[in-house]
Amino acid sequence: MLSQIFSEPFSDPSVRHSMAAVLALALSAGPVGVFLMLRRMSLVGDAMSHAILPGVALGFLAAGLNVFAMTMGGLVAGLVIALLAGAVSRATALQEDASLAVFLLVSLAFGVVIVTVNGIDVEQLMEFLFGEMAAKMNVDKLLVIAVNATISVIALALIYRPLALDCVDPGFLRSVSRAGGIAHLTFLALLVLNLINAFHALGTLLGIAIIIVPATIARFWTRDISAMIVLAMASALLSGWVGLLFAFHAGIPSGPAVTLVAGVLYVVSVLFGRVGGLVWRALPSRHLEA
Amino acid sequence: MTEQLQFRNLTLGYDRHPAVHHLDGAVRTGSLTAVIGPNGAGKSTLFKGVVGVIKPLAGRIERNGVRPQDIAYLPQVAEIDRTFPISVYDMVAMGLWRGKGLFGGIGARDRDSVEGAIAAVGLTGFEPRAIGTLSGGQMQRMLFARLLLQDARVIVLDEPFNAIDAKTCADLLELVRRWHSEQRTVLAAMHDLDVVKAHFPEALLLAREPVAWGATADVLTPENMLKARRMCEAFDEQAEACVVAEAV
Lengths: 290, 248
Known about the structure:
The complex is a heterodimer of chains A (290) and B (248).
Chain A: H1 2-7, H2 13-38, H3 42-51, H4 53-63, H5 67-91, H6 96-118, H7 122-130, H8 139-168, H9 170-176, H10 179-202, H11 209-219, H12 225-250, H13 254-272, H14 278-282
Helix pairs in contact in A: 2-8, 2-10, 2-11, 2-12, 3-6, 4-5, 4-6, 5-6, 5-10, 8-9, 8-10, 11-12, 11-13, 12-13
Chain B: E1 3-14, E2 17-28, E3 32-36, H1 43-50, E4 58-62, E5 72-74, H2 88-93, H3 97-100, H4 108-120, H5 136-150, E6 154-157, H6 166-181, E7 185-189, H7 193-199, E8 202-207, E9 209-215, H8 216-219, H9 222-231
Parallel strand pairs in B: 3-7, 3-8, 5-6, 6-7
Antiparallel strand pairs in B: 1-2, 1-4, 8-9
Helix pairs in contact in B: 4-5, 5-6
């Protein structure tokens, strides 16, 4: 009976696609989320996840329910917004988060106008916002997610060194190399790529959860960046896998299911995490010799 | 005597407002110079210009064959994110950047030199610690270890001895003296004038514009110090465009 809970979903190919997609998503989104957190950009990621909606909507209008068209639309919209916000904050006194908030609002409004004027049916809209029902995914989506995730993992490995140094000591990095600016722009592009992946798997409103929440979970267990990245991947994978089982059996969209499981892991980490967990702080412990 | 750095009518600043204004002069190869002046005098800005982080608004810096990225730079500690999860070892190893770049691996010989630099600043045993767990003095020692690894002809130190105790200050000054004896060119932004008098043969007194530059005893006169304080007036939003001739 218990084994059936785990094996039954796999008899359906569309659920197998979902599971494979969440594996790819976890491996690429985990490290991106860690850097997003360390650069104090978690909310920027949240803002951008909503900003890709008008691009996806335009792709939908141009080619109907075509995964590739929606991906291209979202990619273009996300990159344009990331670059515009970066350019505005560099050229004016406005901080990047403030200018992003403006672009987010305007582009979300634009997206809603497109959607409303052209009338998307409710079922389709629900899938846009919260992900596929009962963890069923078509093979085209899986293909897009796998390609994007592969690009993301390789590109992040290439910019890893300047990206980390740009977080911890930007003045020193600028004095030894010009790679900091390129690393930042590449990182923004990878963020957009992962947001689109998350959108395909979990919907536009909650997709960002599988990027942000695993990174914050990892922060409660280690002080080392490599271990943090591995832990973020692992907790993204666990949330995704358990979340999809939950979505399948309960017949709910995958976005809320995965986010809720990640939320449970987060609460456990806040309470019991080795680095700053609340329970450890509350327990009386003798201070050390030195 | 050759010049390592030559400033020619150099103006550096932000949003067209000059923080360093019409600086002319040269830093000799192998010299040890303290850059002094009140807060906002343009010391950090001058250093950022020297290492190529900001571009001159006018004039230029000649570096006598040394590329800006080959100049070792100690940023102010305040510019470092100490909450970032990186170990002392990895932070020091960043000093190998010139030889390793974006992708180069770190081999056995490199590991020896990283360990050597960490030992030279007295931080042996701290290698696996996260930088957030270091005290202010230990942090500065770690950054000096990174400078040692950079092995640069020109070394620029932005407020290296702020808020650290006498023992750490003495140890780090010993490293500065060693660089000086190895004929490296060293520039340091300083606030403690007693340390400047005791250890720096030359001084540049800056108050946006150069007030005095030369032998330390000639620069640190009461008249010069008073003049520097008066010249460092507030940032003027309504300032007119500067009309001093752009001599080349």
